[in-house]
Structures are given as structure tokens and as C-alpha cells.
Amino acid sequence: MKTEEKLLIRALRGETLDVPPVWLMRQAGRYLPEYRALREKAGGFLNLCYNPEFAVEATMQPIRRFGFDASILFSDILVVPHALGRDVWFETGEGPRLNPMEAGEAAPAFDPEPFHAHLAPVYAAVTGLRESLPPETALIGFAGAPWTLATYMAAGRGKDEQAAARQWMFTDPDSFAALIDRLTEAVAQYLIRQIDAGAEAVQIFDSWASALAPNAFDRYCVQPTKRIVETVRAAHPDTPILGFPRGVGSSYGTFLKETGVNGVSLDQNVAPEWAAEALQPHGTVQGNLEPMHMVTGGDALLRDVDRILEALSGGPFVFNLGHGITPQADAAHVEALLRRIRG
Ligand code: 1CP
Asked: Which among 152, 190, 220, 252 is annotated as catalytic?
């Protein structure tokens, strides 16, 4: 099937479909026994990310089990700071760790050759996936947004509402702006290479956008995303781009209109009726089921699915969760979700 015929791509180009395409953030991961076995075999999380065979397998697992309309490349946002020469490692059961940068420290250089050489296994996984996926399944590439990457580079991990980066941006704005600029360039080039390799859409994860007050939100989330969109579009005008400035409430509208993304992914705190009115006239909406329903299931799950379908099915829409599926999720609830959506 051609890329433009796949349901995800049609929805991202603005089409209203009878049954929305569905995929789930973190659809690969610890809630699946086959993922835990694969991570064991690989000898750690980063080995999954940097070995194309393992990355392809981890991406395929939820597609085989559930038949989602889209797959998302198995990788992590922190491979970009890693490719820029920062240390990244993984604490089992906790999460990724980096050597924190000092406020005022010079941004790492963006040297395209070693950067893309470091990320070559990711590009190989993308190409391998286009050969392995079922013909109707769209392949999404992704990257962390500059702001969210900078928060992990400043703090070394996720903690304290990313206070380290918020402090740095005010105590030494010039060096912080330089870091954001460097990341903006690197992320744009990274996404272009993923599309070159076969990604059919890309998503930019700004998981910590909610930690930005309005002026900073414009400077460090909206403007860098806009630049990434322009750079990627210049190379690949037809590839849809999704943004996920998580937790920004009414500013989702500003983000959608000003960055030029095709669609916006919403967290679960946004009322779908508001999104239908305020956002869908300007682009595709993706979301936004409370991820806890994948742990608890039952009638409450079905009620919230119905409310979202009812509110958003009249415009361009992709069904997803409001954030990633958690390790405690039950595969049976994922199946119930798909049955409810697809009938
Ligand atoms: O199916 C998929 O979605 C797989 C691909 C994927 C993506 C898109 C992974 C695998 N990570 C991500 C993005 C990612 N990574 C984000 C943005 C989305 C979000 O907000 O969740 C962020 C913030 C990270 C950083 C990260 N990686 C964290 C959060 C750390 C913190 O303290 O804030 C964690 C726990 C990880 C590890 C990770 N990444 C992916 C998986 C499957 C895992 C768990 C690894 C394991 O325990 O085996």
C-alpha cells in the first residue's frame, strides 16, 4: 500500500475517517512479556536501541499482537544527546541517566558526520521496518524536542519539574539559547535522515513543555519546533509532522497554529469537546485517553473511549493515549480498546 493511502497518513493530512487510526505511545515496552524477554536477550535497553535487529523486533511486537494502524520506531529521545557526545546510560527499573551539564556550559558541537554515524543503527532499523511491517501499517519516526532534551541534559534525568533547565534559562540565557539552537539543528537533521530511511510521519515529543511559563513556552517550545518543521518540510514537503507539547492546556492551539505541524497529540487533561472546537479546524488531533485505563479496564475505559470518539470523530483524528502506556498495563485492556474503536 502506498504511504498516502495508509489511515494514519490520511488522518494527518486532514481527512475525516469513519474509523480513526489508532496506535499507543510506548506501545512497545515492559507491559509485554515478549519485550521483557527481548531486553534480557539484548543485555539492556540501550542495546535494543542501537542494534537494528533488536529495534525492529521491539517495534514489531505490538504490531503482531494488536495490529495497530501505526508503529513507532523503537528508540529513545536520549540517543540525540548521546550522538552529540554526552554520556547516557540506563538504570534498570528506573530510567535513563546523563551526566548533567552545568548552567553556562557550552553546548556540544553538532558535527553531522559523527552524529549520523552514531545514529546509523537507528536509520538501519527504520529501513528494516519498512520491509518487515504489514503493508497497511504506517511507520512513525520521532525525536525529543529541543526543550525536553535540554531539560534532561541539564538535570541528568527527569526530576523536580526540570528545575535545572528552568534555572539555567534565567541565570545564563545566552548559553541556554545556544544549547536550544544546537539541539534544534540536530533534531531537524535527525528527523530528515529518519524520513530518508523510510519513516512516513514523525512526532516531536516535548514531554516537559508544561514546565514552561508563557514567554519561555514561545521562545523554547514554539519557535524551535517551528524551525524544525520548516527545515524538515524543505527536505520532505509531504511527510506529516505531529507535535506533542505535553500538558500545555489552552496553549495547544497556539502551538498548532504557530509551529505549522500537521497535528497535535493531546494529554488526557484536555476535554475532547474543547479540542474539537478549538483545534480540529486547524489540524489533526491525536489522543487522548487516560493511560490508567490500560491498567484498570472495564466500563470506565469504554465510557471514556466513547466520549473521545463522539467528540473527535467529526474531524481529522488519530486515537491514542494522553501519554505512554505504563508497565502495569494489561494487554487484555488494549484489546478491549481496539474492539471498541473498530467495532
Ligand atoms: O513504543 C514506543 O513508544 C517506543 C519508543 C519510545 C519513545 C517514543 C521509547 C522507548 N521512549 C520514547 C520517548 C521518550 N523517552 C520520551 C518522550 C515521551 C514520554 O514523555 O514518555 C521521554 C521523556 C523519554 C525518556 C525516557 N526513556 C524515560 C523517562 C525518564 C524520566 O525520568 O523522565 C524513560 C523511563 C525511558 C526509557 C524507555 N524508553 C522507551 C522504553 C520502552 C523505555 C523503558 C525501558 C525499559 O525499562 O525497558
From this structure: 152
